[in-house]
Design a protein that fits this description.
By secondary structure, the chain is α+β, with helices and mostly antiparallel strands. It has helices at residues 26-39, 65-72, 90-103, 127-138, 142-151, 162-166, 176-187, 191-210, 241-244, 278-284, 308-319, 337-347, 350-355, 377-380, 384-402; strands at residues 4-11, 15-16, 50-54, 81-84, 109-117, 123-124, 160-161, 221-222, 228-229, 267-276, 290-299, 329-332, 406-413, 417-425. It contains 15 helices and 14 strands. The model has no long low-confidence stretch (mean pLDDT 97).
């Protein structure tokens, strides 16, 4: 197939939601990161053929946020901008959608990415409150309105948390964290296993920050008060197994082990990559960093959604004649510690690989030193629409730093899906 190259990429710091709206709207995040990325390119923003942005929860005034951001970045009236949504993999879907356009010949140069400002997820009115208001506005007489006042109940005002509804699977009726509890039970993953993995994620991100390994991919943000946001701010020095063990289960308070500390953080952030065909590389004198070799999407039981990376990456490996050990670097999005550990144990299980994947036996183990080497969403957060792009972008940085050639980014997707993308670094 026609080769598709990653030329460059950038992201914002991932900013933890702190029980109130964050300093940036989703379009602010995407526009600021994209503008900085485009300024360092040898082509103009108006030279782009498309802007494609993944977003799981756009604000009501930013519904086609891809177009909003394209205009704000100075791409002009003639560059189409559009939005894709595949829950947690929206940012990866944006890349894959761009590749389809480019391989069909419709586009040569595309800016693709993802964004979400989850701190700004809305608080909604209950159905009872909406019904009462509808009756109030429909009332024509003072008597009818007086009767409605008498019928009003204070609990009508209790807000419905939009984010919680969005993180609940409408088919199986489970919160995403409850699906992680399912995997913990299925694979015998203990609380100690989860907390140890989570502590390692924080320690790896802290080490990456101290050693300046993230500087090239992060664009600093400046809020309206002049405050600089230059680093992922959800990471904690005190996230040790001992401290994490003190947290109470959140999703199954009686029997569960999944806590806020061994789950990904609710976060705001954006990420982009510049994609180019060979023709665009020659036309603009670009220097590709990597080639996207292949993509795979998969589906599975929504109640087991965290195994999505296994179901997507396994056929991707087979189609390209690869083993787990042939991959130099892995980025598996850390929705939950239990979810990542379950993926690793699934590949190591003869029974799972035979029954679920149709393989003769276990596929094998992934070297811990090749997986999420700078930490993941447990430490830096999971702005749902952005994470699929972030893991692809960071995978390139890891391969360049380590001298590795081949990498896979994989992600689980609410609703029972998985996505995986194979990339080759270019010297």
């Amino acid at each position: 197939m026609k080769p598709i190259y990653v030329v460059d990429g950038a992201r914002t710091p991932f900013l933890k939601a702190r029980n109130r709206p964050g300093p940036f709207a989703a379009s602010d995040l995407a526009a600021d990161a994209g503008r900085a990325l485009l300024l360092r390119q040898p082509f103009l923003p108006t030279d782009l053929d498309e802007v494609i942005l993944g977003c799981a929860a756009p604000a009501p005034d930013e519904v086609n946020i891809g177009r909003v951001v394209a205009l704000r970045m100075g791409c002009g009236h003639k560059v189409p901008g559009w939005t894709v949504m595949r829950n947690c993999a929206s940012g990866m879907q944006a890349i894959d959608s761009a590749m389809d356009s480019m391989r069909s010949g419709r586009s040569k140069l595309v800016l693709a990415g993802g964004v979400d400002a989850l701190s700004r997820a809305p608080l909604l009115l209950s159905d009872a409150m909406v019904t009462w208001l509808s009756n109030w506005y429909a009332a024509k007489t003072l008597g009818r309105r007086a009767a409605l006042v008498a019928q009003f109940r204070l609990h009508y005002l209790a807000p419905v948390i939009g984010l919680m509804k969005g993180l609940t699977d409408p088919v199986v009726g489970l919160l995403m964290g409850q699906t992680a509890e399912n995997l913990a039970w299925r694979f015998g993953i203990t609380r100690a296993d989860m907390d140890a993995y989570s502590a390692r994620s924080h320690q790896r991100l802290l080490a990456a920050q101290r050693e300046g390994r993230l500087g090239d991919e992060i664009v600093a943000l400046y809020d309206r008060d002049g405050k600089v946001h230059s680093a992922d701010d959800g990471v904690r020095e005190d996230s040790t197994p001992e401290n994490l063990a003190r947290l109470k289960p959140f999703f199954d308070r009686k029997y569960g082990n999944v806590t806020a500390g061994n789950s990904s953080q609710v976060t705001d952030g954006a990420a982009w990559v510049v994609l180019a065909t060979e023709e665009a590389v020659q036309e603009h004198g670009l220097k590709p960093r990597a080639r996207i070799v292949d993509t795979q999407w998969a589906a599975l039981d929504p109640a087991q959604m965290g195994l999505g990376p296994v179901h997507a990456a396994t056929p991707l490996l087979a189609r390209n004649g690869l083993r787990l050990a042939d991959v130099d670097a892995w980025e598996i999005n850390e929705a939950f510690a239990a979810q990542v550990i379950a993926c690793l144990r699934a590949w190591e299980s003869d029974e799972f690989c035979r029954d679920e994947l149709g393989l003769p036996g276990a596929l094998g183990a992934i070297d811990a030193d090749r997986l999420n080497v700078d930490g993941g969403a447990i430490a830096l957060g999971h702005p749902v629409g952005a994470s699929g792009t972030r893991i692809v972008l960071h995978l390139l940085n890891v391969l360049e730093r380590s001298g590795g050639r081949r990498g896979i980014a994989a992600i689980c997707i609410g609703g029972g899906q998985g996505g995986a993308m194979l990339v080759d670094r270019i010297d």
